[in-house]
Design goal:
The protein has 275 residues and is of the alpha/beta class. Helices cover 29% and strands 29% of the residues. The structure holds zinc ion (ZN).
Length: 275
Amino acid sequence: MQVIILGSGSPLPDPGRAGPSTLVRTTVGDLLFDCGRGVLMRTAAAGSSAGAFRALFLTHLHSDHITDLNDILTSRWITSFAPSPLTVFGPGGTAALVQATEAMLEPDIGYRLAHHDDLQWRPSSNVTDVESGVIFEDGEVRVTAAPTDHAPVRPTVGYRIDDGERSVVIAGDTVPCAGLDELCAGADMLVHTVVRRDLIEMVGLARLIDVLDYHSSVPDAAQTAARAGIGTLVLTHLVPAPAPGTEQEWIDQAATHFSGDIVLAVDLLTLEVTA
Ligand SMILES: [Zn+2]
């Protein structure tokens, strides 16, 4: 199993970091987790495409994690040669979001159906709102969801992907919580969104200070990884984006609490999930 960080950024546009999104390449195909800004550009660079996604999993409906859902629906549709519904899983509200996105695309759907004689079907999707438990099983691959804590944003979920003997957890945005601990127990890798509490407090801007109470800091994520016996901790969704030369600070803050491997994400970082 392979993990590719498609976007390591946050809501703040950054020339080098796309919005939050992670591709997990499994024995049954490519599973996409969240779909932030620029996801299909990074997907192309990773050698995949909207048509190749086995399923899309959303951790929550914050805009930065879903900005490019419309691009995925459209691109999958117009590059297909037969109807190919997109399978989507996400927290409560996901089915309504997908439906609203398809409604937003109605003019474009009309233009293309009228223009292309060989395109005789609409974009479509199979959406399941999920809470907890095993939500996807195919071959050796099993995806398990559990509630996370990103309050006041509710509901939110994290995911664990098991492929044979290997396992990776996609935390999404959350503070440390029992649901995430449960997913992480004994997993090989944890991909965790983080913010730098020290830097945000130094900036002191109220709009930024607000993000501290519903995200994990670097030490928070490291402590979650340590409690669960994680092998490799991947820090992503970096707020603020690391200034060049400060990358080691992030690693050091995590290393104070966690003795496993620590990786600071950049876009298109590709990691083999190993024991
Ligand atoms: Zn969020």
